[in-house]
Description:
Spore Coat Polysaccharide Biosynthesis Protein SpsA, Chain A; 10 helices
Amino acid sequence: MQDPEILYMVIPCYNEEAVLDETAKRLKEKYDSLIAQGMISENSRIVFVNDGSKDKTWQIISRLHEEMPTYYSGVNLAHNAGHQNAVLAGLMTVKEHCDMAISMDADLQDDIDAIDEMVERYYEGNQVVYGVRSARDTDTFFKRTTAEGFYKFMKIMGADVVYNHADFRLMSRRVLEELSNFREVNLFLRGMVPLIGFQSCKVYYKRAERFAGESKYPLKRMLSFAINGITSFSTKPLKIITWLGLLMSVISILAFIWAFAVKLFGHSEIGWSSMMCSIWLIGGLQLLALGIIGEYIGKIYAEVKQRPRYIVAEFLNRE
């Protein structure tokens, strides 16, 4: 068997003081098992990324590093950059120190035991290993329906995303190097990673309930995330606007011919209801079109400014 390679776990954290000690404990136990089996190097680390938390998250990360520097490392962002930026910040910070990296949320919903199979698939030659949910039994009916609808809609819109996959994935150092070439400000890692290519596979796992704390993705943020994903990876909404405009133009021409014919034959009474419905329909379509175009213009505005996606204030790591 080949020499074990270095694995860095990247765990984005935002106000996770309630769960962080338990997450660290379980990951340490997993690392002990993987090292004992010769699957990963003793130089592997668990890296917590503090995304501008307002509680004691960074203090806990600092304490974990001081107590066990051979297990725990920490990245402290200068301000809250958002979940996707926090994941990217961690991956870009550790890519020079590892052979492979796994990103995972801190809430213990992702199955830690799936890490074994991910590492095995990596040694088989896979550069990317996607953690995919085998079922959504723990979700409410509303969340399950909207989540599954989101993935299907993304496919329809032309975005290449892995069904039922979030941000639990393994990537090789080579893939991390290629990911660093993606410079866009509007991040949607679920769509960016498949674009990189290389040999990949899926590992299926059952997602658990959140161990403690509250979800950081309420409905409003989920909708915002979905809109960002669609507009970042597909121009189909703009094409739909074009076809809607063409359709409305045809309808308008037909309506003009109808109105002219009615006038010509002396039946010029026009109902108030039909007129108002037409005005509201056309006005609504115009506002929808402007809103979609505005989303794309807003993204162009954010991209051309080229502001940094995150700022690392501190990196605790002892090799």
